[in-house]
Structure formats: C-alpha cells, structure tokens
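Hi L.,

As promised, MHS family MFS transporter:
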Amino acid sequence: MSTPAPVTKGAPAAPVNSRGRVIVASLVGTSIEFYDFYVYATAAVLVFPALFFPNASGAVALLSSFAVFGVAFIARPLGSIVFGHFGDKYGRKGTLVASLLTMGIATFLIGCLPTAQVDGWSFWAPALLVVMRFAQGLALGGEWSGAALLATENAPANKRAIYGTFPQLGAPIGFIIANSLFLLLSINLTNDQFMDWGWRIPFLASAVMVIIGLWVRLKLVETPAFQKVVDKGEVTKLPLGRVFKTSWRQLILGTFIMLATYVLFYLMTTFTLSYGTAATNAEDAAAAAEAAGKPFDPDTFAAGLGYARNDFLLMLIIGVVFFGIFTLVAGPLAEKYGRRKTLIWVSLGIVAFGFLWVPLFGGGFAGTMAHLIIGFTLMGLTFGPMGAILPELFPTNVRYTGSAIAYNFSSILGASVAPFIAVALWQAADGSTFLVGLYLSAAAVLTLIALLLSKETKDMDYENQSS
C-alpha cells in the first residue's frame, strides 16, 4: 500500500482587498472629499460674498470670495508633497485616512465660523475662512492620488482605466449631493433663515459622511503594488527629490494633460452659477442690491442670464448627471483605444466647445441646458481617464508623489484662477462671455500639445516599475 505524499503548506496568502471594497473605498472617499470641496464652491457664489465681505460691492465681494476659493488650490501642491511623501514611504491606506480626516475637520469648522457681520469679527471671520479653506486644499492635495492608486493598483489586468473611473465618479456624486442639499435648504427656508443659519448645515453634515468614509477605509489592506516595493526594499526615502530627479518630464506633461479638465470643470460649475444667476440689466441688479442692503457699483456690473438661484442649481445638477454617466463611459473607451488617443479626441471637442460658448448660452433655456449637458459630457470624458493616465506616468515608488504633484500643480494653472479669470473677462467684455470661451479653447490647446508629446501608458508594467 502506497504512503500518501506529505502535504506541503505554503506561506499564507497575503490579504487582498476585494473588488467591492476597492470600488466602495475609492468612490466613497472621493465623494466625501469632493462634497466638502463643492459645498464651499457653492457657498462662495451664493452666501460668502454677503456674509464674509459685506462692505464690498457685488462684483468685488464675488471676486473676494473667489480669491479665498483659490487659496485651496495654492495649498493643494503642498498637500501633494506632504501626503505624497507619506503615501510613497509608509503606504496608501494610512495616508488616505489622514487626508479624509483633515478635509472633514476643516469643513465642519467652516460651519461653526462667525461671520464678518458679528461685532469684532470683521477681520477674523474672513481670516479664519482662509485658514479652513487652506486646510481643505491641503487635504484634497493628497486625497485624489491616493484614491486613484487604491483603485488602479488593485485593478485586474486590462482593467486599470475602468477601475480608475471609480474615484473620478466621486466628483459628480459629491457635486450632486452638495448642491442638492443647498437646493433643498433654499426651498424649505426663507432667504433670511438660509443666510442666517441654513448655509451652515451642509458643512456640519460632513461629519457624518466622514465617519462613514473612515469606517470603509480602515478596513483596507495595503495595495499589492506598494507591498512589492516594500518587499523588494525599494521604498524611497525622499520621494519628492526622487520624482524631480527621475520623472521631471512626466511631471510637466501630467500637469498640462490635466489643464483643460480643470479649466472646463470650474467654468462649468462655479462661473456658470455666477453668470446664470446674475441680473440681465443694471437696474435689476441695483434693485436686488438695495433689497439686500448691499452697495452697488454700476462700473463693475456685468449682465448675466437672470435665472433664479434654485432654478439654475437644478439645471446644474441635471448637467452633472451627464458628467457622471460619461465618466463611466470614458473608462472602457480609454481601455479599448488607449488613454492618449481618447483624450486627444476629447480635447479637440473642448476646443470646439469653447467657440460655441456664446451661441449656446444665447439660445434661451434650451441653449443653456444644451450648453450644460455638452460641457459636462465633455467633462466626464476628459476626467474619467485621468484616474489611470496620471498614475501610469510614474514608477511605483514615487507614484503617489508624482501623480499628486501633477494633478495639483495643474489645479493652480487651471482651477484656482479659472473662476477669477472668467469673471474678469466677463466684466471686460461688458457682459459677453466670448472671451471666456476663448480662454477654455486655449487651455485645451495646451493639453493637446502635452498629449501629443506623451506616450501611451495602457500596456505599461504597472506593478513592477520603479525608479
């Protein structure tokens, strides 16, 4: 009788993140982060000019509010360096938890701030708003890259672009939740109630969402790609220095590849909300300012579309639904045809859209809705592949830092100044947005140049590449 062969027990398999956990953790985290970010963006248009800059004229108060809005984008590159360092040196999981906590605490505290109308707070209220906005930007500087790496470094073969769309989907979801909540509050509260305390609710409510996000992320294990770097002893001591030494060209290309996406998004959200709800003539604007007890400067007045705030918020939310749908569509397209080719065609579409900016907005309600739907469709198609292409530009041991720096330095060139430049161009053209459209087209041309100078990253060895 033969003796059974001994059973050899191998080393226990390393724990892995399930597909569902990866999708939920990357999607939930970025949804919360973008919710927090967009709550401020909406308030910057609807609430903060009156509450934190009450002594300025309408246009100056709006520009001041946008200037504080831009502070976060100055903070984002610093956040990319700080969180990128820890993400490449100590791992993705803990860094993602830290970024979520930072964003959540800052957003909650904005909801607790006194306004400039409170005695003794005319200076400190705006100053503290700047500090909290800086903290928001710091957190978002590390959040996106970590979420993108969580998704793509756990993705099966030939699925990175598809998995990479899940953290991207957090942007439209966060936008819809934030603006739907503002819309619900403004419908159910009087204007005085909304301006007095109602605007605080979306900021305070973020605490609940952060707790949920933390619960999901604390259950994660480290990504296989980073674990291989640890096992091989290839963890970089100073990721920042390493990425600038070995991947400086990718940093430049990644920054400009993302440029048109940023300009398009912040024109479609923040600027269009200002333009869409602005009075159509100076007389109506003056009457509205008088009713609100605010000064009116006719020299800085620029005509808008005259929609009621709630009506235009609803139109924006409908447009952002297309953003979400086409973010998901973009993943399979980038997987089938390549990231570079897909984005080249989409960027050409953005160039054309810039030239259609005025004709669409001039077409009444139908034209305005077409403008929002087309713009947000292009936004989904350009934003979706970014979750794959930016991380793929960099080796594993500097991937967090590299993709974060490219993503967030692009935010300075694109997002931080886009609403400010658009408002200035709108005023300079006496209410026409023709120059705003040209500005968008010019940004898309720069992105096209960067794409043409780059290489396709679809078939790169994602897990075994190191600098």
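The two ends are 57 Å apart (CA to CA).

Thanks again for sending the construct details.

K.
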